[in-house]
Write a sequence for this structure.
């Protein structure tokens, strides 16, 4: 028996396979990755209700710049994914997550101590670049450690953290800033410190990197050259860093899901600018009261966890009992039916807000429209990201990065348009305009449900993953392993 010259899988060492790790280890990873995602989301929208206090402190009169602290952060979300997600598919998930979050932590301190407006905007941009890392890489981490069924459930929590974070930001700043706008960043820093403390001890999860380390260990022990297959690791730097953009342009699944997620994501940040116009002007609310009107969005988003889990349990129970209605849905598509319903709820919520926010109607009525929007937004976000992760697996970090890039561009641009839109069109028609845009996106989950399998068959990256998986399985059936390797496991 001889030591193989190349290893391509974990069959000789199953305990080192991230999918076979103990539940406690996986729960640790879930806990602190979700905290990092939520903290990134909170930071993205944090200045929304702090801007009036920042303006007063820095003696700024130009109201057109009020959305810049949020917009420049989201522009960082555009730049970051081009680097972090493909890099995580090359050098591994851990170094990207840990080092970027440390820089994010340090520049959050810098924001709290910023001496002037331009410096604050620069620090916010750096925070956005670094905060993009957990937003894009963590979907890949979950693809590393979970099979499809468990991954779908964990991605629901990922979606909740990613989308609920931006809703918490304005609420936090609305109350903290009355004691000084810098307290908004100090409060966020406490949250970031907890997440960073856990990320430092995060294990590496990316299979090809772990196999490469194992090959190096076997080479040292045996004195012979053992290599790890690099079939899923690109060494072409241009391919690595352009991959998210390539997927966004040439992968129809990525383009469609990214457009829809981008629009609903941008609408959340649009509301952070629109609510301070709608409720103070219509109902004479102050900053603190206006921030509380966002709570129904959070409640609607939180309620999706129960719905998504119930649907998931019902689907898998039907598969187990071999009920006919469940078999047309593949593991990738079984989350899409509830997103079809949610797409309609988003449209309803926007027109609801548009035409009930009037002085003659009690403020609770337009506020409750947030329940429908929060629920619909969360389901769309989670189901689309889960679908992409399940479809692209090894390349899921780049696939999610494509979505982050597009949604960050819209998230940065749409809030800037809020004040001019409401000034020229009024509350009813300005809100209706974005309602009509969301209406155009309603067919997307229906089309993916109908033609998703065909699109995956035509996808270059889906086929590349399938070939790598097939080659790995064949290699494991033909390889002969030695006792020395088994002892190392």
């Amino acid at each position: 028996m001889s030591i193989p010259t190349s290893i391509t899988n974990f069959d000789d060492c199953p305990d080192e396979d991230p999918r076979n790790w103990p539940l406690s280890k996986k729960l640790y990873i879930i806990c602190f990755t979700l905290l990092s995602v939520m903290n990134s989301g909170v930071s993205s929208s944090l200045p929304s209700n702090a801007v009036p206090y920042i303006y007063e402190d820095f003696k700024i009169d130009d109201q057109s710049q009020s959305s810049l602290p949020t917009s420049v952060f989201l522009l960082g979300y555009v730049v970051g994914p081009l680097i972090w997600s493909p890099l995580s598919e090359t050098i591994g998930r851990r170094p990207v997550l840990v080092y970027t979050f440390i820089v994010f932590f340090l520049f959050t301190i810098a924001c709290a101590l910023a001496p002037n407006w331009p410096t604050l905007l620069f620090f916010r941009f750096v925070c956005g670049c670094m905060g993009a890392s957990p937003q894009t890489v963590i979907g890949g981490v979950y693809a590393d450690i979970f099979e499809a069924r468990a991954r779908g459930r964990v991605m629901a929590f990922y979606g909740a953290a990613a989308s609920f974070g931006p809703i918490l930001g304005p609420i936090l700043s609305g109350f903290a800033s009355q004691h000084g706008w810098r307290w908004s960043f100090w409060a966020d820093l406490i949250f970031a410190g907890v997440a960073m403390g856990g990320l430092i001890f995060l294990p590496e999860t990316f299979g090809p990197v772990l196999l490469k380390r194992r090959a190096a260990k076997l080479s040292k022990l045996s004195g012979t050259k053992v290599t790890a297959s690099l079939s899923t690791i690109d060494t072409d730097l241009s391919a690595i860093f352009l991959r998210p953009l390539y997927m966004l342009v040439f992968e129809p699944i990525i383009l469609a899901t990214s457009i829809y997620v981008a629009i609903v994501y941008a609408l959340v940040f649009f509301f952070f600018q629109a609510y301070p116009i709608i409720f103070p002007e219509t109902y004479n609310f102050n900053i603190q009261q206006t921030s509380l009107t966002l709570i129904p969005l959070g409640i609607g988003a939180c309620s999706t966890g129960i719905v998504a889990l119930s649907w998931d349990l019902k689907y898998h129970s039907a598969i187990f009992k071999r009920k006919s209605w469940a078999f047309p849905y593949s593991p990738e598509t079984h989350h899409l039916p509830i997103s079809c319903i949610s797409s309609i709820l988003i449209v309803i919520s926007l027109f609801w807000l548009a035409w009930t926010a009037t002085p003659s109607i009690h403020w609770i009525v337009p506020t409750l429209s947030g329940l429908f929007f929060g629920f619909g937004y969360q389901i769309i976000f989670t189901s689309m990201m889960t679908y992409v992760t399940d479809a692209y697996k090894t390349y899921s970090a780049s696939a999610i990065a494509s979505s982050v890039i597009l949604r960050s561009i819209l998230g940065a641009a749409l809030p800037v348009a809020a004040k001019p839109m409401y000034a020229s069109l009024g509350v009813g028609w300005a809100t209706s305009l974005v309602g009509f845009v969301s209406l155009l996106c309603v067919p997307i989950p229906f089309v993916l449900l109908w033609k998703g399998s065909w699109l995956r068959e035509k996808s270059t990256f889906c086929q590349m993953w399938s070939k790598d998986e097939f080659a790995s399985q064949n290699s494991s059936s033909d390889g002969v392993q030695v006792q020395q390797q088994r002892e190392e496991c």
